[in-house]
Specification:
The protein is an alpha+beta fold. The protein has one domain: Alpha-D-Glucose-1,6-Bisphosphate, Chain A, domain 4. Helix content is about 25%, strand content about 40%. It is built from 4 helices and 7 strands. The protein has a 7-stranded antiparallel β-sheet with strand order 1-7-6-5-4-3-2. The longest helix has 14 residues. The chain starts with a strand and ends with a helix. The relative contact order is 0.24. It comes from Actinoplanes friuliensis DSM 7358. This is Activator of Hsp90 ATPase homologue 1/2-like C-terminal domain-containing protein. InterPro entries: ASHA1/2-like_C, START-like_dom_sf. Belongs to the AHA1 family.
């Protein structure tokens, strides 16, 4: 396995979850600071603390439904894809973080870290 896949229900409407993924102030509340914009070709960095500034580039955007960007170009060279689907009064959020080397420490570390990070989205929107 070289990908991380997570399916998480968030009790907030898709527009709010989309904002948590694409607005720098909200993204910083639950994950990392960075100048993300949902614009294909936009290049930005995410501050991963002791792991440094990670360069990224937006690859695909479907407003309110899908966001895909490269992550850690030049080191991990992985791709993060978020997909949002309305579900009742909330949102089903799907994460696919793809492109890890099989059995790599990064795959294991981020595989263990993503679930806790995603659980921080809903409180960040309060």
């Amino acid at each position: 396995m070289t990908d991380i896949e997570i399916d998480q229900f968030i009790a907030r409407e898709p527009a709010a979850v989309w904002r948590a993924l694409t607005e720098p102030e909200l993204l910083a509340r639950w994950w990392a600071t960075g100048d993300i914009k949902p614009v294909v070709g936009h290049r930005f960095t995410l501050d991963m603390g002791s792991w440094g500034q990670q360069p990224c580039e937006v690859l695909e955007v479907e407003e309110g439904r899908l966001l895909s960007f490269t992550f850690a170009e030049g080191s991990l060279d992985t791709t993060i894809t978020w997909r949002l689907e309305p579900e009742g009064a909330g949102t089903r959020l799907f994460l696919r973080h793809a492109g890890f080397a099989a059995d790599s420490p990064a795959l294991k570390g981020m595989g263990n870290g993503w679930p806790a990070l995603i659980r921080r989205i809903e409180p960040a929107l309060a």
